[in-house]
Amino acid sequence: MSKIPYVSSVMFTEEQVQEKVTQLAGEINQHFAGQKIVVVGILKGSFIFMADLVRKLNVEHICDFMALSSYGASTTSSGNVKILMDLRQDIVGAHILIVEDIVDSGLTLHSLLAMLEARGAASVTTCVFLRKKERMKIEVPVQFLGFDIPDEWVVGYGLDVGEKFRTLPYVGIVSFREE
């Protein structure tokens, strides 16, 4: 018997999500006023959040992406970060804004921050859509935060379970039923 995922409830509506993205963009615009930034989206989960966010930025910016893996076949981070796709830009002296869909253990983001700082970035700042504070194994700086959430499996707005539900315009809680 296998378990079939389904969205059992809505955590944040499409309207709440868009209000938060607008708020975050305003904070980022104020923080980086007069500077050029490199917005680095962490694939796959951040792509919808990042697309909405950068369309609301009025600071000069370019976009780049990284794909990382620290989960392997597991549902929890090992903290062992593997780069699946790297930046195409040289970031020496650049102001970096990492855009991440969700932080739970903090291990992946901690490794990424160290990696980008070692490459000579002038600054590395983070914008995280969702954070599961109670699951954090290591404290990581999050300068721009969408929502703190409880330890629930969530989908939508870039987040998935087995590649399902990623394109929902809201954030929902996943439950499982027996097939």
Please give a structural write-up.
The chain has three helices and nine strands. The chain is of the alpha/beta class. The strands form two sheets. It has a six-stranded mixed sheet with strand order 4-3-2-5-6-7. Helix 1 packs across helix 2. The termini are close together.
List the defining traits of the structure above:
alpha/beta; 3 helices
Briefly, what is this?
The protein is an alpha/beta fold. It has helices spanning 14-31, 47-54, 107-118, and strands at 3-12, 36-43, 60-69, 82-85, 95-103, 123-131, 144-148, 154-155, 171-178.
> What's the total helix number?
3
| Coarse morphology | globular
Task: Please trace the helix and strand order, writing H or E for each element.
Answer: EHEHEEEHEEEE
End-to-end separation: 6 Å
Q: Which whole number gives the mean pLDDT? A: 93
| Structural Rg | 16 Å
Cross-sheet strand order for the largest sheet: 4-3-2-5-6-7
**Count of distinct strands:** 9
Q: What kind of oligomer do you see?
A: single chain
Helix and strand content put the structural class at alpha/beta
The fraction of residues assigned to DSSP E strands is 35-45%
The largest sheet, given as strand count, sense and whether it forms a barrel, is:
6 strands, mixed
Unreliable residue runs? none
Fraction of helical residues? 10-25%
